[in-house]
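Ticket #4471: structure output looks truncated?

Reporter: J.K.
Steps to reproduce: submitted the chain below (284 residues) through the standard prediction queue, then opened the result file.
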Amino acid sequence: MTSLNIFSPAKVNLFLKVLKKRLDGYHEIITLMQPISIYDEILLDVSDGSGIFVECNNKNIPLDRTNLAYRAAEMFLRKAGIQKEVHIRIKKNIPAAAGLGGGSSNAASVLKGLNNILPSGFSTSSLMEIGAELGSDVPFFILNHSAIAYGRGEKLDLIEIPGYWYVIVNPGFPVSTAWVYGNLLLTKEQEDINIPSLKNRLKDICIEDILENDLEGVTVLEYPDIKDIKSGLRGAGAAGALMSGSGSTVFGVFENKEAAGIAFIRIKNDPMFKNMAVFAAQGL
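Returned output as attached by the reporter:
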């Protein structure tokens, strides 16, 4: 048996614009993502035999084919033409269904881990193609680098942005990405946003001025606590605050570790955030 320990990071969306709904049912988006230092821990065991087995410390995480990590292992073995027994043990630290990409990150980690263990010969670009079949964010986690994502989110343009510090607040309720997109009304006139224009905006303005998420308005209508969390983070000194992805997690942006640390303690001690998960994390 061969074993591999993997740290599977979360991400934040610093900018997310929904451009249109596509004929295939997906939405055309452009988003700026950065991986952050909140990690799930995955132990991957590969041995002779057959079958895929998933264990997780979070009872709300499915252990069957509805789990992206399971499907990642299944697809990898099929495309590689390899038969093995794979055990995936996941210690969840990233809140689930929270806009932080935990499931996609787990899938990417399994793909990369199996590629390290087994003689598949897949290149990074091949792994990204496999990942895109599993989910729009999976290729981003395979690269594990700040990037502008477009298409349905699977096409990537790498970008260098500072390693901002974040205070991350998860209010404890999951939000369905499908529900958010299903309730998004694309009735307003869309801006002409493309990769060069977004890169120019990053050069010319401060990061707090680029924070924007078209999905936030949908989620806030159903979960108004998100607006209060944003106000609390700004009150604790964040340069800006935004909901990540389809929610429900909200992050505040800080220029350095010290400022984020002070805000983290303030938020943790605030009764408003008593039953919420609070993290301090650095952009990677």
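Triage note (M.O.): checked the attachment and the full token line is present. Residues 223 and 248 are 8 Å apart (CA to CA).
Status: closed, working as intended.
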